[in-house]
Every structure is written in structure tokens, then in C-alpha cells.
Amino acid sequence: MKYVKKLIRNDIIAVNHTMKSPLQFNDPPEIMFSEKQITIITHSLLKLASNRTVQAELPDVDQYVKNFMTEKEKGDPTSQEYALLYLYARLHSAGSKYSPSEYELFRKRNAYSCHPGGLSPLILAEQFIRSESIVADLGSGNGLQGLLLQCLYPHRKTLQIELSSELIRVGRIFQGILGISDERVEWIHDDIINASLEAIDFIYLYRPVRPLEGGKEVYHIIANKLSAINKPFVVFSVADCLAEFLDERFSIFYSDGHLTCYKFNS
User: Fold this and answer.
1) Domains of the chain, CATH where assigned
2) DSSP of 83-125, one letter per residue?
3) pLDDT, position 26
4) Considering the entire predicted model, what is its pTM?
């Protein structure tokens, strides 16, 4: 497989979609990715953003498509990458609503809402997700990250665990547009601490809660659930807060200040 070395700007997650100027990076990490990977991601995002149902959810998303196509025609790789990342972040924001009962628990947990984790976790996941893998996204939002993982590396099942029924509604729309079968995606409307994780091979999460009162309980419970799994697996943790709660069987094999990756040996 042909690989191209290119900068993947993880910090795009901090960009408000209304910003008109790109962020600056002192030392952006370099990630190796294939032309096939970036083609699949681009095609998937454009397919979503060009759909009328998605455009009804995000009336301004067509402008993000236009910006990307304009930068693509100009041929500047950096500007094109920014435009793609802004489109990704905008799609990730669709459906960010909670019912009163959901929001009550959201506040109790000191939770974060709908932060996109960037493209680098998608790229780096390649060697860990196989056709028989079961993947879980803890706090999946509208499920864009997990759906992109299915597009990139088709696998047995993705568990999308999310508190907001509205985000799940939008995620099901995304799933249908991308043509991913129900056998390969399971939407679980629940608090992440109730998730059953015994069968998983790969876990993705983006700091679901603040490590403060109410939030620390969540990390303790997640760490205990992970420790009880009786097989090797991998955790991709963005803006990581798990480290202090995991036992010595977890080892970090990658960290760049944005993404921390753990291997677990039972």
C-alpha cells in the first residue's frame, strides 16, 4: 500500500466551526497515511454533506463543501487539509441536543459534548481493527468517528454508546447514507458506565467527562470494566484522563499530547 507523509493537525478539534483563520502549530505531529485512507474519508464526508437530509440538519454544511472543493482546485495540500478538517468537525456537531433527563445526568457527570477527535486516530487505528473486531466508542455523539472506522476498516460490529437520543437519531441517518448495515452497528442509548465491554477488541473515547467531582467516578468505573476483560485489546484515548485510573497491565505504546494509545495484556 502506498503511503504519503502529511501533517495531520490534531488540534482542529479545538476549532470553532465559525473560525475563518486556521490555528497555528509550533510542532505538529506527522502521521503516515495512505491515499486509500484519505480518499475513503473524503468520499464519506462529502457523501454525508451532499445529502439533503443532512443539509436540513446543518443548513450551512454546503458552504463547507464549497470551501473544500475550492481549496482542492487550488491544489495547496495544507489549505485542502484544513478545509477537509473543518467539514469533518461541522458534520461531527450535528444533533448536539439533550432531553431534560439526559441533560441532568450530563451535568451530574461533568460531561463534555460532541468534541471531534480528529483524523489521526482514524489513521492510526488501521493495524488494530480487523474484520472480526468489535469496536466501542464511549460517548459516540452522532457516531461519525465509529462510522468512519467502519468505512475505512469494515469489521464485525461497532458499539456506539451515547447518552443523547437526538445524537443517535442523527447517527442513524449518517449510517444509512453511508450504506453501513445494521448488523455492523449497534446504537446503545445509555450512560457509558453501563456499557458491557467484555467482547471488545478496540475502544475509542474522547475525554467523556471532566476528571472532577462526578467525573472521577466515571473513570473509576470504566477502568474497572476494562481491567475485567479477559483478553488483549487496545484503547485509543483522546485528551486522555484514564492514565491515573488504569492498573499496571495497561501500557502506553503511543502518545502525542492529543492521542494516547494503550495495550492491555490480561
Assistant:
1) 3-92 (no CATH), 100-264 (3.40.50.150)
2) HHHHHHHHHHTTT----HHHHHHHHHTTB-------SHHHHHG
3) 37
4) 0.88
